[in-house]
Prior knowledge:
Its main location: membrane. The chain is of the alpha/beta class. The chain has helices spanning 10-52, 175-182, 214-255, 266-276, and strands spanning 57-58, 77-84, 90-97, 100-111, 116-124, 143-150, 162-164, 167-170, 190-193.
Amino acid sequence: MRRLAFLLRPGWIALGLVVVAFTYLCFTVLAPWQLGKHNRTSRENRQIEYSLNTAPVPLKSLLPQQDSSAPDAQWRRVTASGHYLPDVQVLARLRVIEGKPAFEVLAPFVVDGGPTVLVDRGYVRPEQGSHVPPIPRPPGDTVTVTARLRDSEAVATGRAPLTEDGALQVYSINTGQVSALTKVPLAGSYLQLTEDQPGGLGVIGVPHLDAGPFLSYGIQWISFGIVAPLGLGYFVYSEIRARRREKEQQAGTAATPEAPERPKTVEAKLADRYGRHR
């Protein structure tokens, strides 16, 4: 136990606490965070790939009721017949499309014999900084649209909706929030129009099928969590070995007696005596 007494010094205690806290964060926060992002990205990539290779299906097969949502069918192409509510419009602000700022234009769409869904008509570019440009109204008659099913986004925290340039604007496409603002019941998922659709504006493409670096980042954090305590153990072992060698050297020095002085011969004594008088 005496050999390990140095571990109770404040410096070693602080180092041990830092290593323990870092290891805990690696395994419980940092690695799960990156691995979770990898799982979500991989899942979305599979959904996009499936949608690209599958024919559209009727919207009512996935959203049969007003309160329906279809998180497992995100990006799936669907068709729906119905009519827009042209007097109801909401803009999603601070969006970036193809590397440039944009507004996404949202409008309710009443499906014949089905739910009312929020439709993302596409995007328009702001004018003179962040001002809303003129936006064409959607058709008022019955039309058939093809769109991609999308999950409702989380409400942006700390950013309340606002009205600017005469347009109601939000920071996220959340069907519950838009429904509360417009007083129009909306299904849980929303639609994003594909190209050449009635009421469509600038087409929003699908994301690139790229898993990103999240898996490698997650593995790196796991590796860091393993290496940190091993490194601390190595330093402790090295310190113990160094202290053991130091003690052995001290013990060896104390155990070695000084060599006794050899008695001088008669010749040496005479040399010392007569040499001093010369």
